[in-house]
Design brief:
Elements: H1 5-13, E1 19-22, H2 29-36, E2 43-50, E3 55-61, E4 64-66, H3 68-75, E5 80-81, H4 84-90, E6 109-113, E7 122-125, E8 131-135, H5 137-144, E9 148-150, E10 153-155
Parallel strand pairs: 2-7, 3-6, 6-9
Antiparallel strand pairs: 1-8, 2-3, 2-5, 4-10, 7-8
Length: 159
């Protein structure tokens, strides 16, 4: 499938330099990082949330999980995970589960985790399960614009 058309149009119209990293088919952003031989804390995953009226895209490292209570406290708003049907409606040009972390391209408000402002850039899901897109730090911060950011993630539990 390659890069979702909405994402590609956004990157091109905003003159964002990016590189594509194809990889074997994976089911999660964490698996995409492993398949691409990229440190998992440099791969951004996106989670679509809803407050019942509007959507919010939470962007965090692939090797962490969303701290929903922390996010809700910070935003002073109650959010829950959007349903798979809602995700499919909002990201209609993407494969299920491969949400690009580019809320502006889809008309979404964004909150992102501070740990993603790495000096050497960030890798993003491209809308399919076989491609990552790399942008440098400056481009990532430009893409996030004036979106809220704080620590919204926590380590994944290991059992």
């Amino acid at each position: 499938m390659a890069i979702a058309i909405t994402m590609k149009q956004y990157l091109n119209s905003h003159k964002i330099n990016y590189s594509e990293f194809p990889h074997e088919h994976t089911a999660t952003a964490l698996e995409s990082a492993n398949a691409s031989h990229v440190a998992s804390d440099k791969v951004a995953k996106a989670v679509l949330l809803s407050d019942g009226k509007e959507y919010l895209l939470a962007v965090l490292p692939a090797d962490r999980r969303l701290g929903l209570n922390r996010l809700c406290d910070f935003m002073e708003q109650d959010y829950e995970l959007a349903s798979e049907e809602e995700v499919g409606d909002v990201f209609s040009d993407c494969e299920v589960g491969a949400i690009p972390a580019v809320g502006d391209a889809y008309g979404l408000s964004v909150i992102w985790d501070d740990s993603l402002s790495k000096p050497d850039g960030v890798y993003l899901e491209a809308g399919d399960h076989e491609t990552l897109v790399r942008v440098d730090k400056e481009s990532f911060l430009r893409m996030m614009g004036d979106a809220s950011h704080t620590v919204i993630s926590q380590p994944m539990a290991t059992y």
